[in-house]
């Protein structure tokens, strides 16, 4: 504690895109977003490519924060640092499972980027290990931590503003294949592919609206239909194959609701096609980008009125999940309410089913689960 505030000390694995974005958000003053109870400190950063990369990453952050950030040339070294309470893993999906195990074995709490692991069995292992150690672990599916999500859950499920929810349609598509054909997002050996990279967001919206529907009392798991288009991509002379377009249809038969969810790495989401939730009394839409929602539009059929509900986000919005980690750890919780272990497991099981139907298994040992 410092001046009554809870201080959470972060270690960061990786120096790539997400590690950089997350760290930049972490050093923003929490007070700017109305968060006055907690403080984030970055204690250390580690690069798997040597200490120089970690040192220049730390130097760039220190300019913003004047904090003392210790650089490490390997992830294992960072785990011995007592100045780290929690590790953020901003590394490829293929690397999540074994690195989370190392973090938990070293007694560190964990916030890990999406997709949490390659498959649900690996996720089960991580949660069992975290529970046995009494450590907090959370999936950094950042969308679920935005304050607007709390309001949307309330509008849909408590106020029932749409009445009964009938259908969700959602797309997230980005044109990596055309613009950056060698980007790691399509590299199967790193856990790439449309479903785990971008398709997870439309699935998130469907599960939020339908699986979480209080009328889904039996926690019915939906029937799943899939269209998956595979594509080859070259990385350092090696060819890998991953899903380039994945379409998912979900049927909640007891709930009498459906979802049509599409994702692609060959083209961009067309304007207005991000998220549409339709009910008997109205509809709710999320404008681009649905992974970092800052507003929603609510239309009520009886009046024909559409109202826009806006939320200011002072930064990128990656800090919300960090704030939740801090509050949860302060309050000795082992999982966040915003993205429970059940929500992560259900998502991983759903993505497993989608890949099984699309006949897509990740190569080599990526799907393996260690003994536990
Ligand atoms: N929440 C979101 O909006 C987004 C989340 N993601 C997720 O974040 C994770 C990281 O993605 P992103 O930051 O875009 O990826 P980058 O390729 O930009 O960075 C990944 C970093 O991981 C480290 N790394 C460790 N092992 C490897 C390896 N075998 N090959 C390559 N890099 C490795 C490297 O850092 P170093 O060598 O320094 O250790 C590298 O810079 C993924 O799981 C992805 O799904 C991605 C984009 C957006
Ligand atoms: O997780 C993600 O969300 C945002 C996108 O820009 C990114 O490419 C994707 O992987």
Automatic annotation (TrEMBL):
<comment type="similarity">
    <text>Belongs to the Gfo/Idh/MocA family.</text>
</comment>
<keyword id="KW-0560">Oxidoreductase</keyword>
<protein>
    <recommendedName>
        <fullName>D-xylose 1-dehydrogenase (NADP(+), D-xylono-1,5-lactone-forming)</fullName>
        <ecNumber>1.1.1.179</ecNumber>
    </recommendedName>
</protein>
<dbReference type="Pfam" id="PF01408">
    <property type="entry name" value="GFO_IDH_MocA"/>
</dbReference>
<dbReference type="InterPro" id="IPR050984">
    <property type="entry name" value="Gfo/Idh/MocA_domain"/>
</dbReference>
<feature type="domain" description="GFO/IDH/MocA-like oxidoreductase">
    <location>
        <begin position="159"/>
        <end position="284"/>
    </location>
</feature>
<feature type="domain" description="Gfo/Idh/MocA-like oxidoreductase N-terminal">
    <location>
        <begin position="9"/>
        <end position="137"/>
    </location>
</feature>
<dbReference type="Pfam" id="PF22725">
    <property type="entry name" value="GFO_IDH_MocA_C3"/>
</dbReference>
<dbReference type="InterPro" id="IPR036291">
    <property type="entry name" value="NAD(P)-bd_dom_sf"/>
</dbReference>
<dbReference type="GO" id="GO:0000166">
    <property type="term" value="F:nucleotide binding"/>
</dbReference>
<dbReference type="GO" id="GO:0047837">
    <property type="term" value="F:D-xylose 1-dehydrogenase (NADP+) activity"/>
</dbReference>
<dbReference type="InterPro" id="IPR000683">
    <property type="entry name" value="Gfo/Idh/MocA-like_OxRdtase_N"/>
</dbReference>
<dbReference type="InterPro" id="IPR055170">
    <property type="entry name" value="GFO_IDH_MocA-like_dom"/>
</dbReference>
């Amino acid at each position: 504690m410092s001046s009554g505030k809870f201080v959470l000390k972060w270690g960061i694995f990786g120096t790539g895109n997400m590690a950089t974005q997350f760290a930049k958000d972490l050093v923003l003053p929490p007070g700017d977003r109305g968060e006055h109870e907690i403080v984030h400190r970055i204690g250390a950063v580690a690069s798997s490519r040597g200490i120089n990369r970690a040192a220049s990453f730390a130097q760039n952050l220190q300019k913003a924060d004047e904090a003392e950030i210790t650089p490490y040339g390997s992830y294992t070294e960072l785990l011995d640092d007592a100045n780290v309470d929690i590790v953020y893993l901003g590394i490829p999906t293929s690397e999540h499972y074994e690195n989370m195990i190392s973090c938990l074995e070293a007694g560190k709490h964990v916030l890990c980027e999406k997709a949490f692991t390659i498959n649900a069995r690996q996720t089960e292992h991580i949660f069992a290990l975290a529970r046995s150690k009494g450590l907090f672990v959370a999936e950094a599916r950042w969308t679920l931590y935005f304050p607007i999500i709390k309001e949307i859950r309330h509008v849909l499920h408590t106020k029932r503003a749409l009445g009964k929810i009938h259908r969700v349609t959602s797309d997230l598509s980005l044109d990596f294949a055309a613009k950056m054909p060698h980007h790691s997002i399509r590299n199967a050996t790193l856990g790439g592919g449309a479903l785990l990279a971008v398709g997870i967001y439309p699935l998130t919206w469907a599960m939020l609206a339908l699986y979480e529907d209080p009328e889904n009392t039996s926690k019915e798991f939906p029937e799943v239909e899939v269209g998956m288009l595979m594509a080859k991509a070259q990385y350092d002379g090696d060819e890998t194959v991953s899903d380039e377009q994945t379409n998912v249809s979900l049927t909640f038969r007891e709930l009498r609701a459906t979802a049509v969810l599409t994702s692609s790495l060959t083209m961009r989401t067309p304007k207005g096609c991000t998220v549409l939730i339709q009910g008997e009394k109205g509809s709710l839409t999320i404008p681009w980008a649905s992974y970092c929602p800052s507003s929603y539009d609510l239309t009520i059929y009886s009046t024909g009125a559409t109202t826009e509900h806006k939320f200011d986000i002072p930064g990128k919005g990656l800090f919300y999940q960090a704030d939740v980690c801090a509050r949860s750890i302060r309050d000795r919780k082992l999982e966040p309410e915003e993205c429970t272990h059940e929500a992560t497991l259900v998502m991983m099981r759903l993505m497993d089913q989608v890949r099984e139907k699309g006949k897509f298994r990740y190569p080599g040992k990526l799907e393996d689960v260690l003994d536990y």
